[in-house]
Amino acid sequence: VNTEPNLGPRRVPDVDLAIGAEISTPELIPVEQTATVRELLPFEVFYREQRMPIARALALTLRDTQLAAEAVDEAMARAYQRWHRVQALDNPGGWVYRVGLNWARSILRRSRRRPPVWMTSGSANGEPDAVDPIIDRALARLSVEQRAVVVCRLLIGYSEAQTADALGLRPGTVKSRLARATARLQSLLSPLDPQAKDEFE
Amino acid sequence: MNDLTPPEQRIAAHLQRASQTVDIGDTAVATVIRRGRQRNERRRAAVGVAAVATLSGATIGSIQLLSKPATRKVVPSTDSDLSEATTPAMSVPTTTTAGADEGLTLANRIESQLVWNSVDPGTDEALGMTVYWNPSTPAANPPFLVWSSAPGKPPVDDGTLQPTLYRSDDGIHWTPTDGTEFVEPEVSMRGLSARDGRLFAFGTAAATAPIPQGKAGDVVVDVSDDQGASWRHIVLPMDLRSLADKAGVQSIYFQGGMAANDEGVVAVAIPAIAFEPSLDARFPEGYVPQRDGVAPVHYPQCVPSDGAVPTSTMVGTGYTAPVQTQPVATAVAATTTAVGVPREEALNSCADQAPTLGDAIPWSDLGVDPQTAALMFRPRVFVSTDGEHFTEGSFPDLPDEFARAQLTVSATEAGFFVAVQNWSGVGSPLARIYSSADGLTWAATDLPSGLYDAIDVTSDGTVVAFNSGFPVPVVTDPYVAVSEDGTTWTKISLSSLLDPDDGPSARLNVYLASSGPGGVTAFATISNGNGAVSKSVVLHTADGINWSRDDVESITGRSGLAATRIQVTDNSVLVSVVDPATRDEHDIAQTSVLVGTPVS
Questions:
Q1: How far apart are CA B557 and CA B572, in angstroms?
Q2: pLDDT tens-digit map of A116-148
Q3: Distance between CA A44 and CA B278 in Å, rounded?
Q4: Which of B211, B271, B375, B576 could form an S-S bond across to B565 if both were Cys, CB 3.0 to 4.6 Å?
Q5: What's the DSSP call for residue A154?
């Protein structure tokens, strides 16, 4: 539920983003506990495979493509910085997503920077590659916490447990946030799903 | 994702499709590795701010390095091939057509009266890109001012941007000022204006004392008489410092802006308060702050639980509301409904039911001083006619419906204006304009209910408000609401500005607009039925009814440009745009300025 003023493309929840958490790094599991059970993953391979999906997930969460690009690079740099431990996590991508999200929210809070208008209007990083404005505005109706859950579960495809782990939430919280967000999105996206309504009648 | 419900699968498909169109751009893995190594080195060496300079190229902001030589080209108006059927030149529309939504009048399309120059700034024609959202309407008269990140000024260690003020007398030649006073965080971001050769900036600053960690500074108007080379603080009597120390207050900032006209300079500010513990945590389902307390948002739930459906569940650190129950809908069973609908779908079937507001929980019950909370509804206005001395005017308290509303301040020859909008998600979105001739006393005018992307007031006092047509409750054509008197409103559909080759399901999305003596100019994208954007256009009107359209690709020869700022003067229109596809060696997008002048 987005309780902030929802005023169209340029108006992104202010307090929601401005009072984000400080930059935080999810607690790392000591490498000794898990590294032996999995083959070590070269950072370059991880980067090549994960950067774009995480960046896109952040773009939809933050509703700011350029900030998402900056966030994923910052988070990837931090991942490299401690790669020997990050790679041992069950879900290194979730760790990067969370670090990037926290970093971006902190930047927004500190700089009072609003997502650039052209990023939030549906024309994300250049008009031909823009996010569908209807989807973007529907996402804008959610809080950033709800968007994060929606993106992790429905876009990245994390399980409830993985989403909970990535976002530092309890599985029950993931479930409830997803249910509410889904209900909200279903209504807002109904113009794109003219057949959906019939399924319930 | 096999465990997803059908509604979730549909949403997932939409998200997947939308995300595939997002081009983040590539960053070489070597760059990120180098950055990671630099982080390690910096941490080990405990090098402070200086080390961050090495990271600047890839970190914050849309820094535009001004390295390219200037180029100009002039292209004719793009509307020369308009069909007669769509351009009844200058005739006032009086009919509502089948092409428009009920109650909307079609905009009258006219040929563009503007000739456009596209300027790619070079080192001596420099426009840094605006990186701060500035809720003030840009000045209509030179000098033009813009905050920018700037080459050679990397973010400091915590990511705080160091802004540079750029100025221009013609919109083409931009030069950075040397305002080194603006390296502090949070300083003077909220407004820029100029009057009688004097520059003004508005915001917060450590004017009287350092800003404690996590606390607030002083509200200031900064004044420069040497074109931005040096600035002095005028501290306004708005004590955010003590407010930040109040019980239950986590942090303080403010909304507002500044604008100037021939009558004077007006600065409007309203505190925004983040509470501790946060209201988000206390009211996870949502809430609406009101003067008397916080009203929780209730969403209808259709899933039964042990014979009763909770209609209100609030968990968190500070407050737990009593759970109310209502009889179970007999059609809904534990795992499926009586008609076999899975419970998840039954839950989602409630999505079209509107949320409601519960009774407000008093601020005092939440550990917050009610007088402190009331300040969120009390805008403060400060006026100066000489640019030196500011007097506080009388601004009406905002009603509950405008809690944490966004304020946009503007000034024209007709007076000063503050546009306020809000929508909590409950009820109808509201918009209002406060107007004043002298900045001291203000009167309110309500706009028709709707979500407006931009609200502008022309120099003759006509209000022009852009509505995206986003669903409340259904999608409509985008339209502008125009009123000369604040009482009678005309809603004008912009769908007549679409061309046949835009596609049968094309949709116009206005997302940036500004007014000035020459009229109102808007930047819009045109998307197809799937939401993909096909082109960008500049729309212009002198009266809100007759509109011209210029295709940006025809002006610049490039596609995918996006606007960052529009300024309208009496004899020109300036639109600054960025080209995400053209980047420098630091991956910074190119900024250009489109300068439109009337056909002679």
A1: 21
A2: 333 333 333 333 334 677 787 788 888 888 899
A3: 40
A4: B576
A5: I
More confident residue, B417 or B589: B417
Cα B15 to the center of its chain, rounded Å: 24
Q: Give the whole-angstrom CA distance, residue B600 versus residue B598.
A: 6
Spatial CA neighbour of B303 closest among B258, B333, B261, B338: B333
Among the listed residues B378, B362, B121, the one whose alpha carbon sits nearest the alpha carbon of residue B243: B378
Pairing of strands B519-527, B507-516: antiparallel
pLDDT band of B91, cuts 50, 70, 90? very low
Residue A121's nearest CA partner among A68, A71, A186, A65 is: A65
Residue B108 and residue A2: Cα distance in Å, rounded?
37
How far apart (Å, rounded) are the C-alpha atoms in residues B87 and B110? 6
Number of Cβ pairs < 8 A linking chain A and chain B: 327
Which residues neighbour A43 within 8 Å (Cβ) at sequence distance 6 or greater?
Answer: A79, A80, A83, A87, B29, B33
CA–CA separation, A101 vs A114, rounded Å? 15
Q: Which residues of A touch B20 (CB under 8 A)?
A: 56
User: What does the pLDDT look like over B419-474, one tens digit per residue?
Assistant: 988 766 677 778 899 999 999 999 998 988 877 877 878 777 888 888 866 544 45
Select, from the ranges B71-85, B326-340, B429-443, the one with the highest average predicted confidence (pLDDT): B429-443
- Chain B, 476 to 515: residues with Cβ < 8 Å from chain A are 507, 509, 511-512
Calpha distance A114→B314 (Å, rounded): 30
A20: its two tokens: 């984000």
Cβ <8 Å between A43 and B29: yes
CB B227 within 8 A of CB B198: no
Q: Which of A180, A174, A138 is nearest to A156 (CA)?
A: A174
CB contact under 8 A, A74 and B347: no
